[in-house]
Each structure stands twice: as structure tokens, then as C-alpha cells.
Design goal:
The chain has 308 residues and is an alpha/beta fold. The protein folds into two domains: 86 residues, Arc Repressor Mutant, subunit A (Orthogonal Bundle); 215 residues, 3-Layer(aba) Sandwich (D-Maltodextrin-Binding Protein, domain 2), CATH 3.40.190. It contains eleven helices and twelve strands. Strands 3, 4, 5, 6, 7, 10, 11 and 12 form an eight-stranded mixed sheet that branches. A two-stranded antiparallel ribbon has the order 1-2. It is elongated and about 100 Å long.
Length: 308
């Protein structure tokens, strides 16, 4: 006897007709009838009474149905589990970052390499400490973070408590980013004194608007402005810079990676006399073993930050 024969019996019992069951299962009636007849011969018992008015279950048939119904239900569930397991084992990679633009080109390379096999790439924009939380919760394999050196001890204690391993990639200067709506965009020098920012609003992530890192602006010597724009995503920040005279405190990554063009509607400036730097690095949970595709990502990431 086979699982297919069990399904045939249940469908015939449900439809009350061999012909209707065959149509429902896209089989010929002769194939269905022959299969069930072979099963009855193997069992030595009739499952159905057959007459001119149709079919009926025999007493044995009713008992047989009661036994095979849970079996078929469990087999169906098992098939679904196996299908889901096969789906879960599809090639995948997940990364969360503080909105760095160099992540997308690397993910594009992974896609080009694996798309014929099928790949799912999960790329999250982790605002503030979200990238750290994503790694801590093992929601992603790798996080790319920026650490201002004046807060490094705070971050290191946080990494230790969350069982996170940090690997530095490069150290860069802090910069001010503006769009073409800000008059500073058109000046010739590539650096500015912090004092000139007093005339413009800043656009910030919520975690820099308040919290343990919100004093970064006083540390940088940036004067307070009565206006401030709090943005919940990197896209909102860039759109705000494009359409207003606001500025954004960022990391001067053009000296840290290559082959990534800066958008023409944005410009960055170093801050005169600034001694605070940004350390860029990647993180993973200490209980996580890097997958081959994650290692490939790290290799590309490391190459991007190698000195020319």
C-alpha cells in the first residue's frame, strides 16, 4: 500500500464518486479505480460497496478511513515542513549598517555571483544602534558600524555585554555634509570652522537628538541653532539636505574607500581643528560562525578599505 492510495481513498469517500474524485485529482477514472482495487486486494477487504446508485463505505472502509485520515494529515504536514526546510536552506546573507553606501555594491556583487542558484539578501539600514541590536539578536550575520573615538569605551562595554566581536577596518575624519541648498556647498575650501554652522539647522538621527551621544555637537564645537530636523532614515536625511540648508555630521569616507562616487548634489567638509575621529568596522555575534558567503562579503569589504 502507498500514501497515494490513501489519498485516493479519502478523496473518493469525500466525493462519493469515483468519477468526481478522478476529475478532482486530475486522474483517469480507470487509473483511480484500478489503484483502489489493488489496495483492497492487498488488504483482503473491500473499502467501498459499488452499485448502480454509486458507492458506500463498508464497515471495514469506515474503520480504514479513521486510521488513514491522521496519517495523511501528518504526511501532508511533513511535506510542508520539508518544503519549508528546503526554502530555509536557500543561499542567504544578511547585513545591517549605519547607512553606508559601500554596502550596496558589495551586495550587488554577491547577487551577480549567486543569482543563478537563487539568493536572498537582507540589507538593513540600522539607524543609531540598531545595527548593534540586529547582530546581538542574531537577526543578521554581520553589522557595519561607526564608532566616534570619544565614545569608544562606551561601545566596547556594550559589545562585551552583548557578546559582540568588533573588527576595525579604518579610521577617518569627521565631516560636515551639506546639499546644494546650503551656501557652504559652493565655497572653494574643503574645510570649514565649526562656528559657521551656527546659521544653519542640523539634521540628526533620533539617538543623536537625545541620549548618551547627543553631546557630540558640543564636543565638536558646533554652535546651537534654534532649528533642528530629526530624521528616522538615511533616505530622509539625504532628501532633507537636498531641499534645505541643513547640515549633517558624518564620517569622511571618501578617504576610507574607493570606487564609490559621491552624489553630485552633496558635498562634505572637514571641520577645522577637529581631533575626534570615526572608526569604521564590522561586528558579529561571538556565537556565530561566518558562512562562506559572509566570508566573501568580508573579503570584499576589507579590499574596499585597503590603502591604495
Amino acid at each position: 500500500m502507498t500514501f497515494e492510495q490513501f489519498k485516493y481513498v479519502l478523496e473518493v469517500a469525500k466525493c462519493g464518486s469515483f468519477n468526481q474524485a478522478a476529475n478532482t485529482m486530475f486522474l483517469s477514472q480507470s487509473t483511480l479505480s484500478t489503484s483502489i482495487k489493488n489496495l483492497e486486494e492487498e488488504l483482503g477487504q473491500s473499502i467501498f460497496f459499488r452499485n448502480n446508485r454509486g458507492i458506500q463505505l463498508t464497515s471495514f472502509g469506515r474503520d480504514f478511513i479513521s486510521y488513514i485520515t491522521p496519517i495523511c494529515s501528518q504526511m501532508t504536514q511533513l511535506e510542508q515542513v520539508c518544503k519549508q526546510k528546503k526554502f530555509d536552506e536557500r543561499i542567504s546573507f544578511s547585513v545591517s549598517s549605519n547607512g553606508f553606501r559601500f554596502i550596496a555594491p558589495i551586495c550587488a556583487k554577491l547577487y551577480q555571483h549567486y543569482h543563478s542558484l537563487g539568493i536572498h539578501i537582507y540589507h538593513y539600514d540600522g539607524i543609531g544602534d540598531e545595527a548593534i541590536e540586529h547582530v546581538s539578536n542574531q537577526q543578521v550575520e554581520i553589522g557595519i558600524v561607526r564608532i566616534w573615538d570619544c565614545y569608544k569605551q562606551i561601545y566596547m562595554r556594550q559589545f562585551f555585554a552583548k557578546k559582540i566581536l568588533f573588527t576595525p577596518l579604518t579610521t577617518v575624519n569627521i565631516c560636515i555634509m551639506v546639499g546644494c541648498g546650503n551656501p557652504l556647498f559652493y565655497q572653494k575650501k574643503d574645510s570649514i570652522p565649526a562656528s559657521v554652522l551656527a546659521d544653519y539647522p542640523m539634521v540628526v538621527h533620533p539617538n543623536l537628538h537625545s541620549g548618551p551621544f547627543s553631546d557630540i555637537f558640543s564636543r565638536l564645537g558646533i554652535p546651537e541653532n534654534k532649528n533642528r530636523i530629526i530624521a528616522g532614515s538615511r533616505a530622509i536625511i539625504y532628501d532633507t539636505l537636498e531641499h534645505t540648508d541643513a547640515y549633517y555630521v558624518s564620517s569622511d569616507l571618501k578617504q576610507g574607500y574607493r570606487k564609490i562616487e559621491t552624489p553630485k548634489n552633496l558635498r562634505s567638509f572637514l571641520i577645522d581643528g577637529c581631533t575626534i575621529t570615526s572608526e569604521i568596522g564590522w561586528i558579529r555575534h561571538e556565537d556565530y560562525t561566518l558562512s562562506p558567503i559572509a566570508k566573501e562579503f568580508i573579503k570584499e569589504l576589507t579590499w574596499m578599505f585597503q590603502e591604495l
